[in-house]
TrEMBL record, chain A:
Its main location: membrane. The lineage of its organism: Bacteria, Pseudomonadati, Pseudomonadota, Alphaproteobacteria, Hyphomicrobiales. This is Peptide/nickel transport system ATP-binding protein. Keywords: ATP-binding, Nucleotide-binding, Transport. Residues 6-256, 276-524 form the ABC transporter domain.
TrEMBL record, chain B:
The lineage of its organism: Bacteria, Pseudomonadati, Pseudomonadota, Alphaproteobacteria, Hyphomicrobiales. It comes from Pseudaminobacter salicylatoxidans. It comes from the Bacteria. PROSITE patterns: ABC_TM1 (PS50928). The keyword Nucleus does not apply. This is Peptide/nickel transport system permease protein.
Length: 542, 326
């Protein structure tokens, strides 16, 4: 057999001395053949992105040093190349796309120009560039490529921008494409389209693709081979069909077990009277406007009604822009509303003020998406948790003892109270966020994408914790998520939202098991790794 | 109506309101200070008896109520009449028109110098962050930032005019030389160098610091990584991607400061004997020459407003996202 397209041998990259381990990546050996998709899968901090950046020569050299090993691409020793030599490989022979399509394009340069720049950098004649850019935009499935080429990135959606990134990466027909979590920031239906596009282009052009992801569903859909990384080490490599179906390494096994699947057994549900009742909710956002301009209106939520009882979890699912977070904010009274009613324990919340509003603030609490941004970095954790009860007139001693109990309850040591948020991992911070929400003894918990930023194994633990505290504290929970698998795991009932309207609602196993609306069906069909979830992915004969 | 045109129009209407409010506020504030032109003039004339002062007050309209005076003044402004300086026996508009070109020449030169030198220095510092060149630029800008303008002015006069004799220290042109044409231009330019750099150095320091910080921030952004992944050389990456985006906050800042430069030239004009608006205001203040002072305030606030509108328009061109959201 001929030499592989890419050969990484015993690659070691050192972390700065302050890091929690010596090497970001140690002794990593991988190969990628022409026309093959290799997925590197792992949790945050596993070294998968650093491995990809090393191949591309994009490591921040002041922080990360390559201390050993080699990277050979098509017979070229990449690590031996100087900056100019590496520059000629980048973009021309190896293309790369990134996780955040919203920020990966220069905001003040037209799309067409950004694509032409690749060709300009590698000496393609000016006359040919423009036509080729249009051709590429067409090839990645963008409508009206001529018009798109003249637009600035902010006019394009996330999916469209990722297509532009792909067009840019493929401009010079590279032999290899590195895709670093290219679909993580996208909606599930967009993700499915981009995955298909990458696979189609890869087959058409016979490229080798190094695909970095944390999502085993994506791996199942796209990978020929899989390498699993943990803490900078490759723990398992093999054909996708083998690794996914019968993982050899215990870490791979634990990761796969943590992937949420669709629940088949219906939950008991709650028979109590509803605590939260929302009817005919409408929210309109107005932008612009002024002396001579009419404001633009965007109906974010339109005629949405639901109720939640204690001990019950209601899921709000939908893609970005579906209005699910807005509903959460209206319920919490972070946002005002433009129509309808929000009632809590029978009393109106929308017009509540003074003491009534203050009482509601204690009864309804929120857990946020980003555990890094939602705790004050300059307050010790104990202070953050106690702030709520103290504001509601609880005395310090009671607040403190409750804070300590809660820390223990969410699985942290009581000593955590005297530390600052940055000393904790993402999962631990989310536990702190939950303890903070529980401190005022609420009846209603609104969790907005509360597990979306977490690694899959941590996600499973936090979901367990949320379920336990809901039962223990007898809470009503409004669970907002874009991830249907997560919703299926934790919710009793679910509402599917599309452009601010409810398209389907019901018991979660019914909605996901037998969807009635075509939008719900599309959403479900787009969830990656379906065949694998259903156990239809067979191990290839050895 | 097209969106940029509508934006400009809306800005103009708001600006007129802002300028009117400033004029009224200034008018009332000035009257809070003790003394009036009549008492100063009477004092200087050595005839501070009540009858003479009353006469003066009646002549200047100072005997009317303050609101009445304000109303008369505003009516005048609306008709393009900035009032009359009884001290100098000239229409205020004429006084300002005589001085404004000199001030504009000084401040615009200083501004352009500050902007170009500041951005270039900041960019060099950012691209050499942590190295000695960065350190030198940072120290130099900090020195100019921290040193009072008049001190820099005096020291540069000492060095370049007194000791080295390279440049003239005072005024806008060589008195009595009677230069014409090209010689005149060169003469004014030579006189301009010291005051313009003195005034510009402080702002240069600000722009250098801002540009450096802004570029370091942009340097770590995702699209710069994309640019590197495309195989671009470092020149285009710095120019088209880093600097092009880093310049946006500088434009906002420059717009705010461009307006202030007109008013901020008072010290520089005084130190270098530059015959501009600043000195006119300074003298008017000492003499309680209200009408002149108010006229200067009006002109500077109009300048601020004009520069803000220009900044807005430039911003719409350099940042395509702006036009869409408004």
């Amino acid at each position: 057999m001929s030499d592989p397209l890419l050969k990484i041998e015993k690659l070691t990259v050192a972390l700065p001395s302050a890091g929690d381990r010596v090497n970001a990546v140690s002794d990593v050996s991988l190969t990628l053949d022409k026309g093959e998709i290799l997925c590197i899968v792992g949790e945050s901090g596993s070294g998968k992105s650093i491995t990809a950046s090393t191949v591309m020569g994009l490591l921040p050299s002041d922080q990360l040093k390559i201390t050993g090993g080699s990277v050979t691409f098509d017979g070229i020793d990449l690590l031996a190349l100087d900056e100019n030599g590496m520059r000629k490989v980048r973009g021309a022979r190896i293309g790369m796309i990134f996780q955040e399509p919203m920020t990966s394009l220069n905001p003040v340069m037209k799309i067409g120009r950004q694509i032409e720049e690749v060709m300009e950098a590698h000496g393609i004649a000016r006359e040919k560039r423009q036509a080729r850019a249009i051709e590429l935009l067409q090839a990645v499935g963008l409508p009206e490529p001529e018009a798109i080429a003249e637009r600035y990135p902010f006019r394009l959606s996330g999916g469209q921008r990722q297509r532009v990134m792909i067009a840019m990466a493929l401009a010079l027909e590279p032999d290899m494409l590195i895709a670093d979590e290219p679909t993580t920031a996208l909606d599930v239906t967009t993700q499915a389209q981009i995955l298909k596009l990458i696979r189609d282009l890869q087959r058409e052009r016979g490229m080798g693709v190094l695909f970095i992801t944390h999502d085993f569903g994506v791996v199942a859909d796209i990978a020929d081979r899989v390498a699993v990384m943990q803490k900078g080490v490759v723990v398992e490599v093999g054909p996708a069909s083998e690794v996914l179906v019968s993982p050899g390494h215990p870490y791979t096994k634990s990761l796969i077990d943590a992937v949420p699947g669709f629940r088949e057994q219906a939950s008991a549900g709650s028979t109590e009277a509803p605590v939260l009742k929302v009817s005919g909710l409408r929210k309109v956002y107005r932008t612009g406007g002024g002396l001579f301009a009419v404001p633009k209106e965007f109906v974010a939520v339109n005629d949405v009604s639901f109720s939640i009882a204690r001990g019950e979890t209601l899921g709000l699912v939908g893609e970005s822009g579906s209005g699910k977070s807005t509903i959460g904010q209206c319920v919490m009274r972070i946002n005002g509303i433009d129509g309808g009613k929000v009632e809590f324990n029978g009393s109106d919340i929308v017009n509540a003020s003074g003491a009534a509003l203050k009482a509601y603030r204690a009864q309804a609490q929120m857990v946020f998406q980003d555990p890094f941004a939602s705790l004050n970095p300059r307050h010790k954790v104990g202070r953050s948790i106690m702030a709520g009860p103290l504001a509601h007139g609880v005395d310090t001693a009671t607040a403190r003892s409750r804070m300590e109990q809660l820390l223990k309850r969410v699985g942290l040591d009581a000593s955590a109270a005297d530390r600052y948020p940055h000393e904790f991992s993402g999962g631990q911070r989310q536990r702190i966020g939950i303890a903070r929400a529980l401190a005022v003894e609420p009846d209603l918990l609104v969790a907005d994408e509360a597990v979306s930023a977490l690694d899959v194994s941590v996600q499973a633990q936090v979901l367990d914790l949320l379920r336990e505290i809901r039962d223990e504290f007898h809470l009503a929970m409004l669970f907002i998520t874009h991830d249907l698998r997560v919703a299926s795991q934790i919710c009793d009932r679910v509402i599917v939202l599309h452009r601010g309207r409810i398209v389907e609602e019901g018991e979660v196993t019914n909605v996901f098991g037998d969807p009635q609306d075509s939008y719900t069906r599309n959403l479900l069909a787009a969830v990656p790794g379906q065949k694998w979830h259903r156990g239809e992915q067979q191990a290839l004969p050895a | 109506m097209s969106s940029p045109l509508r934006a400009v129009l809306s800005r103009l209407v708001k600006s007129v309101a802002v300028v009117l409010a400033i004029v009224l506020l200034n008018f009332l504030l000035i009257r809070l200070a003790p003394g009036d032109p009549a008492s100063v003039m009477a004092g200087q004339a050595g005839a501070a008896d009540q009858q003479f002062m009353d006469q003066l007050r009646e002549q200047f309209g100072l005997d009317k109520s303050i609101y009445e005076q304000a109303w008369i003044y505003l009516k005048g402004i609306a008709q393009g009449d900035l009032g009359f300086s009884y001290r100098q026996n000239t229409a205020v508009w004429q006084l300002i028109a005589e001085r404004l070109p000199a001030t504009l020449l000084l401040t615009v030169s200083a501004f352009i110098f500050a902007l170009i030198a500041g951005v270039v220095m900041g960019a060099i510092a950012a691209m050499n962050a942590g190295r000695s060149l960065d350190f030198i630029i940072s120290v130099v800008s900090l020195v100019f930032y921290a040193t009072p303008l008049f001190w820099i002015g005096l020291m540069s006069i000492l060095l370049f005019s007194v000791y080295l004799g390279w440049l003239p220290a005072f005024g806008m042109m060589t008195v009595g030389a009677g230069y014409t044409g090209w010689d005149h231009v060169l003469d004014v330019a030579r006189h301009l160098v010291l005051p313009a750099t003195t005034l510009g150095l402080f702002y240069m320091a600000v722009y250098a610091r801002m540009t450096r910080a802004s570029m370091l921030e942009v340097r770590d952004m995702d699209f710069v990584r994309t640019a590197r992944a495309k195989g671009l050389k470092s020149g285009p990456i710095v120019r088209r991607h880093i600097l092009r985006n880093a310049i946006l906050p500088i434009i906002t800042l420059a717009g705010i400061q461009a307006g202030q430069l007109v008013g901020g030239a008072i010290l520089t004009e005084t130190v270098f004997g530059w015959p501009g608006i600043g000195r006119l205001a300074f003298d008017a203040l000492l003499q309680r020459d209200y009408q002149v002072l108010l006229g200067v305030f009006l002109i500077t606030s109009v300048m601020v407003v004009i520069f803000n509108i220009i900044t807005d328009l430039i911003y719409r061109v350099v940042d395509p996202r702006m036009g869409a959201s408004a």
